[in-house]
Every structure is written in C-alpha cells, then in structure tokens.
Write a structure and sequence with these properties.
single chain, mainly alpha, 5 helices
Length: 131
C-alpha cells in the first residue's frame, strides 16, 4: 500500500461517518434517477421508490446530525444508536431489491436500483466500522 492511500483502519470515526453520508447520498441520487426513469409506468412503483428514498432521507439526517456532535460521549452514543439501526438499512436495501425485481418496474430502472443497493450496502459497512 502506498503512503498516500489511507487505510480505513486509520480513519477517524468522523471520517467513517462522512463516508457513510456519501454512500447514502449516492443511493439517494440513484433513487432519484430511478423515479425519473419510471415516468409513465406503474404509479405504485414510483410511490415505493419515493418511500425508500424517504427512509434514506431520515437516516441521512441522523448521520449528518451525528457528524456535527463535538462532545465525545454524545458522539459515541449517537454512533451507537446508528449502529443499532443497521438492520433497518438492510431492510431498505432488501426493499429496493424487491422493487427492482418487480415486473412492473420500468426498463432501465433496475440498473439504478442495483446501484442504490450497492451504495446502501457500502453505508452499512461504514456504519458497522464505527466505534
């Protein structure tokens, strides 16, 4: 490993949290693209994609809030609470997979949904690495 490449082991909890934020934002971006690509298709699919995005919005708010905490004890409590929510993040990922495999999903949307799942899984890994 080169000297410029920073191992995730060397990352601070705040850096890990920032990586999780970026991953969730990436997932949101792909859900937005999926919503745009579903124009004219089954409104229930569009609604489901919006629900999944709202779930990520709520989690992103919590991640962002935790990132602003300066007190070490409060930060530890906040990251501990985030780690407890990892199963919910996995549930959103599972729902996105289900929506992507629905036969009513518009062509091309599945690719966006697969990217969304990848970002959500990355975020879950980052969350699990928090102290």
């Amino acid at each position: 490993m080169s000297a410029e490449v920073k191992s995730r082991v060397d990352e601070t909890p705040k850096e890990i949290l920032l990586n999780a934020v970026k991953a969730i934002q990436g997932a949101q971006e792909y859900l937005s693209k999926a919503t745009e690509a579903t124009y004219g298709y089954d409104p229930e699919i569009v609604t489901q994609i919006r629900v999944e995005r709202e779930s990520l919005d709520a989690f992103l708010t919590q991640l962002s809030h935790a990132g602003t905490i300066t007190d070490d004890d409060l930060f530890a409590k906040a990251t501990g609470a985030l780690k407890l929510q990892a199963p919910s993040l996995h549930a959103v990922s599972d729902q996105v997979k289900k929506t992507a495999s629905d036969i009513a999903t518009a062509p091309g949307v599945s690719g966006y949904m697969e990217q969304t799942v990848t970002f959500i899984q990355q975020a879950a890994i980052f969350i699990s690495e928090l102290p």
